[in-house]
UniProtKB/TrEMBL annotation:
Its EC number is 3.1.1.31. The lineage of its organism: Bacteria, Bacillati, Actinomycetota, Actinomycetes, Streptosporangiales. GO terms for molecular function: 6-phosphogluconolactonase activity. The keyword Hydrolase applies. PANTHER family: 6-PHOSPHOGLUCONOLACTONASE (PTHR11054). Keywords: Hydrolase. Pathway: Carbohydrate degradation; pentose phosphate pathway; D-ribulose 5-phosphate from D-glucose 6-phosphate (oxidative stage): step 2/3. Hydrolysis of 6-phosphogluconolactone to 6-phosphogluconate. This is 6-phosphogluconolactonase. Belongs to the glucosamine/galactosamine-6-phosphate isomerase family. 6-phosphogluconolactonase subfamily. CDD domains: 6PGL. The gene is pgl. It catalyses: 6-phospho-D-glucono-1,5-lactone + H2O = 6-phospho-D-gluconate + H(+).
C-alpha cells in the first residue's frame, strides 16, 4: 500500500477541474500502455462535480471512452433511474455524453433489479462480475483498477464503509450489502477494503471546511481504519488526497500539501 500524497487546490471549482484533468491523463496513459483503462466512480457532491468537469474538459476526447471499464465504489440501493442513485448522477454528468460501451459500464444493483428488494444477491452478483473481469496479473478477485475515486464523509466514511460497521472487517468479500448507513439512504452496496486497495491508484476527493477534520484523521499516522475508514483507503502504487483549501485546513503536522501556500 502506498503512503498518501496531498495536493491542495484554491477552491472547490478548481479542485473539480484539476481532478478531471488528472482523470483524463490517467486514463490516456493507461490506454497507451494496455489499450484499455478502468475507473471506479464515487457518489457525492465533489465526485459528481468532477464528472461534470470531465464532460466539459477540452481533452476529454483524448480518452477512448469505448475502451474504459466503469465500476462504482458504492451505490445507494434505490430503484433504477432514481435521481439519488450514484449511477443516475454519473450517467447525467458524464456517461451519457461520451461514447462509453454500455457493456463496460458496470452499475451496482438497484432495488427493482432482478435480484429483488434486498441488496445481498446483487452484491454477490457484482462481486462475480469483478472476479470475471480480473486477470491473473491482477493478483486479486477484482481488476487492478487504474484509478478509484472516493469521496469522504465528515465521519470519515469512504464509499459506503461507515465507521465501526461490520463491512470494515471484511477480508474475503469484495462487495457487501450495507444496512443502517448513517447517511441516507440506509441501504447501500459497497466495495470493501480488499477491492479498493486492489486499485493501482486511489484518489480521495474532499472539498469544504466540513471535511477538514475527517481529512486530518484520515492522514493521521495513528488512525485505525475501523474508526476512520478513510485511513484504510490506499492504492497499490499511489494514494492521493485531492483537496481544496478549506478541506486542507487541518492537515496533521508533518503532512504538507503541494499547492498549500
Ligand atoms: O453514495 C455516497 O454518498 C458516497 O459515495 C459517499 O461515500 C460520498 O462520496 C461521501 O459521503 C461524500 O459525499 P459529499 O461529497 O456529498 O459530501
Amino acid at each position: 500500500m502506498s503512503a498518501p500524497s496531498v495536493v491542495v487546490h484554491p477552491d472547490t471549482g478548481l479542485l473539480a477541474k484539476a481532478a478531471a484533468a488528472r482523470v483524463v491523463t490517467r486514463l490516456v496513459d493507461a490506454q497507451a500502455a494496455t489499450g484499455s483503462a478502468s475507473v471506479v466512480l464515487t457518489g457525492g457532491g465533489i465526485g459528481i462535480a468532477v464528472l461534470s468537469e470531465l464532460a466539459q474538459a477540452p481533452a476529454r476526447d483524448a480518452v477512448d471512452w469505448s475502451a474504459v471499464d466503469v465500476w462504482w465504489g458504492d451505490e445507494r440501493f434505490l430503484p433504477t433511474g432514481d435521481p439519488e442513485r450514484n449511477e443516475t448522477q454519473a450517467r447525467e454528468a458524464l456517461l451519457d455524453q461520451v461514447g462509453v460501451d454500455p457493456a463496460r459500464v458496470h452499475a451496482m444493483p438497484a432495488s427493482d433489479g432482478p435480484d429483488g428488494a434486498v441488496p445481498e444477491p446483487g452484491a454477490e452478483r457484482y462481486a462475480e462480475a469483478l472476479r470475471a473481469a480480473s486477470r491473473p496479473e491482477d493478483h486479486a478477485d477484482v481488476p487492478a483498477f487504474d484509478v478509484c475515486l472516493l469521496g469522504i464523509g465528515p465521519d470519515t466514511h469512504v464509499a459506503s464503509l461507515f465507521p465501526e460497521q461490520p463491512a470494515l472487517y471484511e477480508e474475503e468479500r469484495t462487495v457487501v450489502a450495507v444496512h443502517g448507513a448513517p447517511k441516507p439512504p440506509p441501504t447501500r452496496v459497497s466495495l470493501t477494503f480488499p477491492a479498493i486497495r486492489a486499485a493501482k491508484e486511489v484518489w480521495v476527493l474532499a472539498s469544504g471546511e466540513g471535511k477538514a477534520e475527517a481529512v486530518r484523521l484520515a492522514l493521521s499516522p495513528e488512525a485505525g481504519e475501523v474508526q476512520v475508514p478513510a485511513a484504510g483507503a490506499r492504492g497499490r502504487s499511489r494514494t492521493l488526497f485531492l483537496l481544496d483549501r478549506a478541506a486542507a485546513a487541518k492537515l496533521p503536522e508533518g503532512i504538507s500539501g503541494q499547492g498549500l501556500l
